[in-house]
DNA sequence: CTTGACTCTATACTATGGTACCGGGTCTAT
DNA sequence: ATAGACCCGGTACCATAGTATAGAGTCAAG
């Protein structure tokens, strides 16, 4: 697969594919005699993974670490395990942050629905108070 | 209030106050004879509002819109409420994806403990559903 | 064997949300 | 009236995550 095909299938810019390769997020592709990148099909789901992980609030650096987690024969299993556990902690932390966010937003919406018809928007008023533990 | 006082009270950088003013997030302050900004006390809660809204996942541009909505209250509340609900939907989707990712990572840890090499990277399969953007 | 679409590297530029620095002016207490 | 703290606008810079462009080379169909 050429880079253009990869970009089209993964729905990203060609430049983005090259950028991800530079950032070490993609397996370095083979090259044709003329120097064209020849990607395997795996790269498309991988790019989609990257995009989704980004939406979840992971930076490209964190995503690179996630992608580096793999159990292979002969490799230091303990190391992989340790890093995976660290990532689980990170994911749990992100989950908690999202929970806080959701509760805060829901509280605001509910305040909005309880409001007297003539009152000011309570969402905006509530934002003037500190968020509970977000 | 001088800009330094505002920054100290709102716990942001002086540059940030000027930046927010440039971005149209603050009411343009009066000036002293010598050109110093003279802020009214309102600006401190407003900066706190901005900071909190950011924590809720709003961009500065969205926050500028929220602040503009506040002026003409009434039907503005519904508008603000709708935006908050949209954010909640997004947050819920992200939570589900994080759960998937966590499960995938846990599977990886378990594979490690069994010292079984993973044929395919299960992490890549963890984020299969695209997030619809808000 | 040429033409046009595609790709190459390298560099520069964009947006977002700030932060830092510069040479100067202002404010205030002594 | 002068030191020192503060502020001014302007510009440059930071990180992150790309996107655009230039000038050259490659690939494949006709």
Strand and helix layout:
The structure is a homodimer of 134-residue chains.
Chain A: H1 3-10, H2 14-22, E1 30-31, E2 37-38, H3 43-55, H4 60-68, H5 77-114, H6 122-126
Antiparallel strand pairs in A: 1-2
Helix pairs in contact in A: 1-2, 1-3
The structure holds a DNA duplex (30 and 30 nucleotides).
How many individual β-strands of chain A?
2
Span of the ends, CA to CA of chain A: 45 Å
Helix content of chain A: 55-70%
Q: What form of chain A results from the Cα inertia axes?
A: elongated
Work out the strand percent of chain A. Answer: under 5%
- Secondary-structure-derived class of chain A: mainly alpha
Largest sheet features of chain A? 2 strands, antiparallel
Reading the helices and strands of chain A in chain order gives: HHEEHHHH
């Amino acid at each position: 697969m050429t880079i253009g095909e990869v970009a089209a299938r993964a729905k990203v810019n060609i430049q983005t594919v090259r950028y991800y390769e530079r950032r070490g997020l993609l397996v370095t592709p083979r090259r044709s005699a003329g120097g064209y990148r020849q990607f395997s099909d795996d790269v498309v789901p991988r790019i989609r993974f990257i995009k989704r992980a980004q939406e979840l609030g992971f930076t490209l650096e964190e995503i690179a670490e996630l992608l580096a987690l793999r159990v292979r024969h002969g490799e230091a299993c303990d190391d992989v395990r340790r890093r995976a556990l660290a990532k689980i902690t990170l994911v749990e932390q992100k989950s908690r942050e999202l929970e806080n966010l959701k509760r805060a937003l829901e509280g605001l919406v509910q305040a909005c629905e309880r409001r007297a018809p003539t009152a000011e928007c309570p969402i905006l008023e509530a934002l003037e108070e500190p968020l509970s533990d977000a």
